[in-house]
Amino acid sequence: MKFFIDTASLTQIREAHALGVLDxxxxxxxxxxxxxxxxxxxxxxxxVDICSIVDGDVSAEVIxxxxxxxxxxxxxxxxxxxxxxxxxxMTRDGVKAIKTFSGKGIKTNCxxxxxxxxxxxxxKAGATYVSPFIGRLDDVSTDGIQLxxxxxxxxxxxxxxxxxxxxxxxxxxxxxxxxxxxxxxxxCPLSAILALFDxxxxxxxxxxxxxxxxxxxxxx
Length: 220
Ligand code: G3P
Known about the structure:
The protein is of the alpha/beta class. The protein is about 55% helix and about 15% strand.
């Protein structure tokens, strides 16, 4: 399973990249706004900056909601860097845009997916990635992981090559469960990735190894 980081923070992207386990980045307009990135020029430069840190796919979301707007915006984003993946919302025009981008060899990520039917449409249109939002489903008492499992089954039934990119991940167990049910990618906040490192027995074990080594050295 690939690990993407779900942030527009260059500091966090650098930190995750330095861990050696980062395969890509996803952003969205809320995450860009959180970093204070606004205005066309600043937004485009920010995506280029992200691409210079990580050698993997970087999702850049369109703001337009109509087909022509999405197509123009997506072309402009895709021209920034070969790793840019145009993120398009799951709407009728969004699916049409994905179909057009797919015909031109432009990578896409279909976002705001909350049902298996939506994921099926995204794959039929040729999306590179589909992003089911598991945390937001859990928030409304619906099993997000079950949706990942359902999409995995459907895609495997028909050999659909769209990659299942689990989004809206909130904690490390989401990552583990995504891996168990066969998500292709998990896009995670840095905190969830870092939490995977921790186990008290690792900490205690390392302390004991080092203490024993110090004792042996002192006795030498
Ligand atoms: O990138 C989209 C998604 O990951 C949003 O997550 O936590 O706002 O539901 P969240």
